[in-house]
Design brief:
This protein is mainly beta. The chain has helices at residues 75-79, 170-175, and strands at 7-16, 23-27, 40-45, 48-59, 64-69, 85-89, 110-113, 117-128, 131-138, 141-146, 152-156, 161-164. A 6-stranded antiparallel barrel has the order 1-2-5-4-3-6. Strands 10-9-8-7-12-11 form a 6-stranded mixed β-sheet.
């Protein structure tokens, strides 16, 4: 049995597609086409990961796919899966190298800026129409850093730390300065 911590979130079942058990799937990944030949996926159902096998799956646009699972043949059966998360085992992902990373991999990493020092911790990476933004929490304040190679100096995988050089004034803009008070 696979546990959630041994998997990564592929996406979720968004809605019905037709009336013969097909569903529309949102693939919350960098490149949905990388997953066009999947044979199966784990569906989070009642808090457990349950394997489902694809009868068919077609990638559409904007991260969506239309899928038909082997054992789901009716609208009623498919309705039970709406909003369920989809997962795949971590071991199918190629290992990240250098400054490349999967969005989920850097969650909770400490962020250190070369000028500012310790900034906070990565909450998540938000993908806005192909312009990903790293959401960093500094206490209860949010800092948004564009995920651009020029701003990321190093990822220290051993110590769960990202070293950055944010654009001048960006961090201070989010945090405010003592001079304003």
């Amino acid at each position: 049995m696979f546990l959630k911590e041994d998997c990564f979130r592929l996406g979720s079942i968004a809605r019905l597609h037709g009336y013969k058990g097909e569903v529309s799937i949102f693939l919350d990944v960098d490149n949905p086409n990388d997953y066009k030949n999947l044979e199966s996926v784990f569906v989070e159902f009642d808090g457990k990961l349950v394997p489902f096998f694809f009868e068919s799956m077609f990638i559409r646009n904007k991260g969506f796919a239309v899928a038909k699972f082997e054992t789901i043949d009716t609208e009623k059966q498919a309705t039970m899966l709406i909003k369920c998360g989809l997962y795949l085992p971590l071991d199918i992902l190629p290992e990240s190298e250098g400054k490349e990373f999967y969005y989920f991999e850097i969650e909770n990493f400490k962020v250190i800026d070369v000028n500012f020092g310790e900034v906070g911790y990565v909450q998540k990476v938000i993908d806005l129409s192909g312009n990903p933004i790293i959401q960093i929490m500094h206490g209860d304040k949010e800092i948004l850093l564009p995920k651009q190679e020029e701003f990321i100096h190093e990822i220290d995988w051993d110590n769960d730390t990202i070293h950055i050089q944010a654009p001048e004034g960006l961090i201070e803009m989010y945090l405010g300065t003592d001079e304003e008070e």
